[in-house]
Every structure is written in structure tokens, then in C-alpha cells.
């Protein structure tokens, strides 16, 4: 695609300067003193998208930080791509560890160093400039919409509501997001799965007050002993979760996708060394990246009860508590799982104690099938630029807003990220290789092209 | 024994006044401002014992509060009784719950109300006045020594050392202690057993840092999950502790003593109701008072790890901790048990984690065999006064100083208490029924008589 290369060559320094201008706005969403910077960033994005070729752009208020929306509708009968990114960044502390000022971008060793260089100003800018490229070279094959939010780093507390209120405006065929990483610089990566979450607090009550462990120990059930036994029963010796019906809806992953996942470079010895563990653990029959990517988990996130101070105080406590979570996989409904856990956990409680289970939080998993036309389009675009087929990567984590988009807007997202592990996002000396920035700009127009052809 | 009744009748008001004088000294050992009161109490005891008939009496310094020692040696070839009591009392807060001033004794409804009325000024005074009675009526059949300490309520931190330094002076055939309770006013009670204790802190380390429970959950062992499984394995479905060798030295209790224990009035429904539990728990094949009295226990006194604040924070923590204790029974050596636990707990750790076990504390159990002459003497004395055979009661708690006496001085203690559950020791409105006070004074000379005959 000579057109892309030529336009990029002529404009690459300007693209970088436009990114630098965005980076210089210290738009830290978690610090209220930076509220004015959020508006500056929103206006910057509005101007950026208008100058890049948008028909219209607008800064929308929410209960929190603003959202910048822009669009270019070339033909209502053509497919529409909705680009999602965020203008906010993480705090920069500890400042003394930065080798250059976090909000004064500097290029060293072929990398842009600055807060937001990758996450997500650098990755967001690739979309703005790829869009400009297509507009200015008359190669834009789809309608485009941009939704740039200002609260991603604090959990997107208001974007769901805003989507709800602007459903019609946001109508699209696919959401395109660059906010994830590649496995390594040679291996393009499409994140195809995110896990969901269910989270409970449990309270086990034994006697109605703390007891003398001498006078009562051995004759009255100790709620910590009981809670430990109950937690122990929740998983079996094969690492299976024992809640009846827990796996009923788990989406089995195709042989093709598991084979692609197996190609992801993974050095078990390095992994164990980095965590300083002798052995990994988990469900029998699954590899480490499958255990985190396509299988649910059961983790006690916190536990407490009795005496936890210094020394040897004896007590038979009245209560013991735990915070327990399960990462869920596609097709598992977090509300159904929350209920299954509650029923089961209460059912295994011995009648020497009382048990209370409170579901605290939940979110749905997300999956992007690899036979989706948009997935195939992204795949082909990567093949063109990187010379190899991307790997579909199931991330063990949760990006709740992606599931929310699917729930509210009914649109699948393609998570096509160009960041690298070494980019140190959220840390001092965040950086983004120029190579990745420009490769992103090369890949995105190809995605549009293939998507327009396939959709 | 008309002699006893006559002397008591003539002197009962004076006895009470002498107790009141002792009570009026606010000898709270845990409050340093009351240090001068400790010396006042020690001097009061010295004068009391001299006026009651002791040949000599002395206030000894220790690293902490003083000890009053007194003796009357009538004939070195006769048996010697060493009386142990304590002059210190617990704090009195909350003051507003007292119906009369805690250090101004008042008799209401046949009970003395004051801090220390029972524990242990009232019970100690019984011994002083029983001693006087025997001396003044020329019926003292043994040598007598008194050891009145000032730090019982803060764990007797200096008495062991003092005993060590005065072994010769303290030589005796039995230690007689009134610092325990009767099961009810009709049932004389001799506490024949105290449990020992072993106490550990355990630390389970998984990965070398807290991990993202999405990125790693399901693939890396969670130390809280693991700790729960390890604790769960420490006891089986019959309530047995699974540490190999744990029960090897447990003293089996004779059929006769178990039958006597079974006579102790116990209302399971009331017990459960008071604790608000549906069922008791414990080792199969043993009654509730046997579970606390003659069998060891395994209680987690504290547990903590991960996120324990408000809300639903996810984390796969690096570490989990527990404080674990076992109450031990006679013949179990706390140091041996500490080592057995450590070995076993480390051996059941999966190789996905590292486990560290730190023994924090320990103490030996105590048992008084019911065929000991001194026990039989106390039993017969109770039969004379209460008209029924006392029950041998195994307390689940630990009074470390009693085991210390046996270790250092090589002397068994007879725990012959006249307190009642309703005496509210350590609480507001502590009291001691006059009836119990005088019954104690009636019982003690009979103990001396039978002991002199049997020893």
C-alpha cells in the first residue's frame, strides 16, 4: 500500500508533534486538581479529530470527566467503526524514578518516554492519524465514530450511563480499541477474551462472643477452623471448583484457538523464577495461559478473624471473614454464579456455625470469536504489516467497560493493541517505541479496508 | 467438730472486719499508680499472719510486686502445707456499673460486695482465719507456710524466679490453693486438671509479591487458599487432631474419674443457648466437659491475609498468616508438641508455597490425681461440711503458675475453691457469699486434720 507509506513518510514528524501536544496535558483522572486538564485534553481531542477529517466533534459532559465524540459518516449504508480510547492517564509518582519529566515527552533509543506515551495517548493517536491518512488520501472505506473517555484509569464509572444515553449516536458494527499489548515485538496480538468476575464477602459466626480458648476450646466450633474447612472444600485435588453447576455454561474453546494459544511464547522456568515459586498450580489438563485465559478461578482475596496482633494471645473468636472472588469466563453469567456460590457455601456450613454470604460485585466476561469478520480483518491487517498471523490472546483480567459496551450497545470489540510489556505503563519511564506507533498507523487503515470488504 | 463451730461463732464478725481491712487497700497490680498499695497489702498480710499465729513473716522484694511469706513450724517431722494466694486484684472499670464502691465492702443479701471479695482476698482470708482457728484452739496438726503474691492477675511474671531462689524455704508436702470455683453452691469442687498450651504463628508465602488476580488467578497458588486447606487437614471428621504422634502421651483418664466428671451438672441446652449456637462440636466419644477438660484442642486464634478493607478489591496475595494454638492435657510435653506440629505442618505444605512455623509460647498441663492423699483429705473435708463428695473438675484453662510450682518445687497443688460462678470475679459487683466464706473456714481445718492423718 504505497499510499499509506507515502503519506506516513511525509507526515510522521507532525504526527509525533501532535502526540506530544496531547501528552503535555497532565490529564490525571484520579487527582481532582487535574480536573481542568481533563477539559483541556477533551478539547485537544476535539480539535485533533476535526483537523483529522471528522465532520463534527463535541465534548460531552458526564457526572464525572468529559467524553469527546466525533464522527465522519461517508455513507450510511457502509459499515461503521467505533473507535474507543481514553484521554486520561495514571499518576506519575514516584517522580524521582523518572529519567525525564513525565509530561515532557522525550525520544531516546527510538522510544517516546512520557506518561501516556503508550497508555493510551500514543495508542489513541494512532487511530486519529490513521483516520486522517484515510480521509486525506480518499481511502476511507467506512463510517467512523470516535468515543474518547476521561475516566478509564479510575474504572469508567460514568461511561456506561453515557452510552445508555447516546445509544443511537453510537450505533456501529464494531468497536476498535488499542489499549492492550502484543506478546512480543514480533508477534501481533489480538486480545480475544477477558474474564468476568464474581466477588463475595462471607461471614462465619460461631459463639455469640469471643470465648476463652481454654474454657471452650475443643467443645465449641471455632469459626476460623470452620471457614478454613469450607474454603478448602471449594476446590478439589484437580483444581476444579466444586460448586454444583459452576462449569455448566463455561464456553469450551475450539481446538483451533487452543492451538493458536499454544503458539504464544511462554517460558515456564522464567515465569516461576520471576514469581519466586517452585511450582505453578491450577486446573489439571490446562496450560498456564489457558488456566488464566479460558478457565475460571477461585481465589480468596482476603481473610481475617480473631487475634492478629503481636504475640500469643489465645481466643476462640466469635467470627471469621473472607473476601472471595471467581474470575469467570465467557458464557458464565456473574449473577447466576453469585447465586450458585451462595447456595453451595451456605449448604456446606456445619450447623455449629451461622454463615452469611454477601455478593459484593460482579462483571461479565468478554469473548471475541476468532471467526468474526472484524477479527479476520484485524488478523489480515496484521499479516500485511508484521508478516505473521496474530495470536488470539485470552487475558485473565477484566476490562469491565468492554463487557458493558456489549451489554448496552450490543457491539463486539476488537482489542488490537500495539503496546509492549516493556512499555512500563502505569510506572515511571512509561514509553512507546516509535516503531510500534508507526506500525499501528500502518495496520489500522488495512483493518478498515478488510473490514469494509468482509462486513 | 464443736471446736471449729465455737471459735467461728465467737470470731466471725472480727474475721469479716479483717477481710474488709484487706479489701480497702486498692491493690490493682496492672496499674502502676497502685504500686504503693501493693506494699500496703503485703504489710497487711504480714501483720495478719503474725497475729493469726505465724512464728515469722516477711515481705520479700521481687523484680515486680512483693511477696509475703510466713510460716509456723510445729514439728519438722510433721507434714507441711504451703498455702498459695494472691493479694492483687483486677481493675474496677467500668465504675458506673458498681452498685457500691469497689473498695468499700458492703454486705447485701448475705454477700460481700467488693473488688477482691472472692478473688482472691476473700478466699485467701479463709486460709488465714482457718490457720488462726487451729493455732488458737491448739488443733493445728501440720506445719504451715504461706506464700501470698502480688502479680497473679498479670500472669505471675516474677513468682517462678522467686520460688527458684527460695526452694528450701518453700519445701512442703502439698500446696493448697483457693482461687477456683465450685460448680454450684451445693457441689464442692476440686479442680484436678489444667490444660497446657502450645502456640504457633504460621506464615504461608506464595508468589514474591501481591499479584493481579485476573492475570494470575487460576495459575499461581493463592496462599490463603493453601493455608485454608492446610488448616482444614489438621483435624479430621471425628474432631481428631491429625498430627502424627500428637496423642501418644495423652494421659487417659480413669473410669472412676470420668464417672465422677459425668456427675457434674451440665445442661447442654442452656449451654448452647448461652452461646447462641445450634450444636456443640468436638472430638467424637467425649462429653463437652471432657472435650475441654481431658482432651487437647486445636484452635486457630487468628488468621489474616490479603485485602481486608471495605468493598471488593481483587488481589492474589503474596502471604497469609495464622496464629494457631493447642490446649494440651497432662503428660503432653508442650515442647515436644510444638516440634511435632512444626514438622507436620511443614510436611503437608504443597511445593507451590513456602511455609514458616514459629512456636510463640507454651506451658505444661497440670493434673492432680484423685488418689493422691491430699486429694482424699480435701474430699473428706468437703464431705464433712457439704454433706456430699466433691466432684473432680478438669478445667480447660491454664493457670501457668500451678504447673510452675510443680516444675520448680516438685509439689502438687490442691485447687480447693469456694467461689461461685455468680461471684462476678473480674467484673463490676464482684461478691462473695458469707455462707461460702464461712464454709471455707470450716472446711480448711478438716483438710489439715485428714491430711496429717493420711500423709
Automatic annotation (TrEMBL), chains A, B:
GO terms for biological process: proteolysis. CDD domains: M20_dipept_like. One of its GO terms (molecular function) is peptidase activity. Residues 192-352 form the Peptidase M20 dimerisation domain. This is Acetylornithine deacetylase/Succinyl-diaminopimelate desuccinylase. Keywords: Hydrolase, Metal-binding, Protease. It comes from the Bacteria. InterPro entries: Cyt/Met_Dipeptidase (IPR051458), Peptidase_M20 (IPR002933), Peptidase_M20_dimer (IPR011650).
Amino acid at each position: 500500500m504505497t499510499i499509506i507509506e507515502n503519506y506516513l513518510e511525509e507526515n510522521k514528524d507532525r504526527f509525533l508533534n501532535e502526540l506530544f501536544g496531547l501528552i503535555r496535558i497532565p490529564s490525571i483522572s484520579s487527582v481532582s486538581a487535574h480536573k481542568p486538564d481533563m477539559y483541556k485534553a477533551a478539547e485537544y481531542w476535539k480539535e485533533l479529530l476535526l483537523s483529522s477529517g471528522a465532520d463534527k466533534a463535541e465534548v460531552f459532559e458526564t457526572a464525572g470527566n468529559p467524553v469527546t465524540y466525533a464522527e465522519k459518516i461517508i455513507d450510511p449504508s457502509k459499515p461503521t467503526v467505533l473507535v474507543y480510547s481514553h484521554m486520561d492517564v495514571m499518576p506519575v509518582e514516584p517522580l524521582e524514578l523518572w529519567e525525564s519529566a513525565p509530561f515532557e515527552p522525550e525520544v531516546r533509543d527510538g522510544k517516546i518516554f512520557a506518561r501516556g506515551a503508550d497508555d493510551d495517548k500514543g495508542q489513541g493517536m494512532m487511530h486519529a492519524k490513521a483516520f486522517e491518512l484515510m480521509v486525506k488520501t480518499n481511502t476511507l472505506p467506512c463510517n467512523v465514530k470516535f468515543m474518547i473517555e476521561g475516566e478509564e484509569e479510575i474504572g469508567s464509572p460514568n461511561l456506561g450511563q453515557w452510552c445508555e444515553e447516546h445509544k443511537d449516536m453510537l450505533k456501529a458494527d464494531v468497536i476498535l480499541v488499542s489499549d492492550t499489548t502484543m506478546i512480543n515485538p514480533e508477534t501481533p496480538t489480538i486480545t480475544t477474551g477477558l474474564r468476568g468476575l464474581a466477588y463475595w464477602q462471607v461471614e462465619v459466626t460461631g459463639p455469640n462472643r469471643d470465648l476463652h480458648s481454654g474454657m471452650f476450646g475443643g467443645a465449641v466450633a471455632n469459626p476460623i477452623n470452620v471457614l478454613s474447612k469450607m474454603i478448602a472444600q471449594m476446590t478439589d485435588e484437580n483444581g476444579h471448583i466444586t460448586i454444583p453447576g459452576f462449569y455448566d455454561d463455561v464456553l469450551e474453546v475450539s481446538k483451533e484457538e487452543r492451538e493458536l494459544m499454544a503458539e504464544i511464547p511462554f517460558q515456564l522456568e522464567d515465569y516461576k523464577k520471576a514469581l519466586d515459586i517452585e511450582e505453578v498450580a491450577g486446573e489439571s489438563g490446562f496450560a498456564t495461559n489457558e488456566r488464566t485465559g479460558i478457565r475460571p478461578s477461585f481465589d480468596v482475596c482476603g481473610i481475617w478473624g480473631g487475634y492478629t496482633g503481636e504475640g500469643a494471645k489465645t481466643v476462640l473468636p466469635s467470627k471469621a471473614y473472607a473476601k472471595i472472588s471467581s474470575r469467570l469466563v465467557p458464557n458464565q453469567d456473574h449473577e447466576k454464579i453469585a447465586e450458585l456460590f451462595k447456595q453451595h457455601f451456605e449448604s456446606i456450613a456445619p450447623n455449629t456455625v451461622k454463615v452469611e454470604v454477601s455478593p459484593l460485585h460482579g462483571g461479565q466476561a468478554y469473548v471475541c470469536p476468532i471467526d468474526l469478520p472484524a477479527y479476520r480483518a484485524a488478523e489480515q491487517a496484521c499479516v500485511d504489516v508484521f508478516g505473521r498471523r496474530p495470536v488470539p490472546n485470552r487475558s485473565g483480567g477484566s476490562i469491565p467497560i468492554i463487557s458493558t459496551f456489549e451489554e448496552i450497545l450490543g457491539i463486539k470489540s476488537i482489542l488490537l493493541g500495539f503496546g509492549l510489556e516493556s512499555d512500563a505503563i502505569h510506572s515511571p519511564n512509561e514509553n512507546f517505541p516509535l516503531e510500534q506507533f508507526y506500525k499501528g498507523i500502518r495496520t489500522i487503515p488495512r483493518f478498515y479496508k478488510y473490514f469494509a470488504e468482509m462486513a
